[in-house]
Design a protein that fits this description.
With about 280 residues, the protein is mostly helical. It has one domain. Strands 1-2 form a two-stranded antiparallel ribbon. Helix 1 crosses helix 6 and helix 2 packs antiparallel against helix 3.
Length: about 280
């Protein structure tokens, strides 16, 4: 069944759309950094001196920014799309009833779809990271990674990682960030079990994710943050520290998994009692 689901995914061309959108996002990030350099320095500084400090900005900095914003803002859309098209898409295409006539448990059908979707998101996030690192290397060049308190809210003090340590952190960040994408995938899968139209399921999942993300970013709602899965999606930033607090990283990762399994438990229950006509 896994091969069949993977074949359907490839034929849907969603992976190509995901890769194309990720490539467009990286190009826009590159243009954004370049234009920032021109604006802030009146055109007197080269792209590699974007922040007027060559020891701060390099290809690893670009990759970190691009991967961070991509994981939090771009890839969740594809996670929501993937989950939202699973059950609702089969219903809309009138193939779910056909699937259920086979001697296969509903739980296995749902589990197979989730495994294939999860692997797809793992590969998509890996492709985004690899492309960001490659573009950073070609356009600017690598070097030591310096992180300062600021827009990423990654640290409250300066962090300096040598190139080898930074690259190891990126390797760890890849699967860790992919875990963060399981929550929107699980939420959209849950919505897909309640709806018959995949467009409605995807739209609802994306809308809910954006509302939760924006709410979590507004200081006024800080007391609600512990109850929003979006508050933990950037937990992997913690690996980019001189001294990693593995306890905090593990706790936030566990909270994300708890949200994901909670959504999936409800989705499995709903799919089990769902009646097809």
């Amino acid at each position: 069944m896994h091969g069949f689901e993977a074949l359907k995914l490839v034929r849907s061309r969603r992976p190509l759309i995901g890769l194309a959108a990720s490539a467009l996002f990286l190009v826009l990030m590159l243009v954004g950094f370049y234009t920032y350099a021109q604006t802030e320095t009146g055109g007197r500084a080269d792209f590699r001196y974007t922040f007027e400090n060559r020891s701060y900005f390099n290809g690893l900095t670009f990759a970190l920014y691009a991967f961070y914003f991509g994981v939090l803002m771009v890839l969740p859309i594809f996670a929501s799309t993937e989950g939202g098209t699973q059950i609702a898409g089969e219903t809309s295409g009138r193939t779910l009833g056909l699937l259920l006539t086979r001697p296969v448990a509903r739980s296995r059908i749902l589990r197979t779809k989730l495994v294939v979707s999860g692997l797809y998101l793992l590969l998509l996030s890996g492709a985004l990271l690899a492309a960001a690192l490659t573009i950073g290397l070609i356009a600017v060049g690598w070097g030591d990674l310096n992180i300062y308190p600021g827009v990423l809210q990654m640290t409250d003090r300066h962090q300096h990682l040598d190139q080898a340590t930074a690259l190891r952190a990126f390797v760890i960040a890849w699967p860790a960030a992919s875990i963060g994408l399981l929550a929107p995938l699980a939420l959209s899968t849950l919505l897909s079990t309640w709806m018959d139209n995949p467009i409605n399921a995807v739209a609802a999942a994306v809308a809910i994710h954006l509302v939760l993300y924006v709410t979590g970013e507004i200081h006024f709602f800080r007391d609600l943050r512990p109850f929003l899965y979006t508050s933990y999606m950037g937990y992997w930033r913690g690996v980019f520290r001189e001294e990693v607090d593995w306890g905090a990283v593990s706790r936030d990762g566990a909270k994300l998994l708890a949200f994901s399994f909670g959504f999936l438990a409800v989705a499995a229950w709903r799919f089990r009692i769902r009646q097809e006509t």
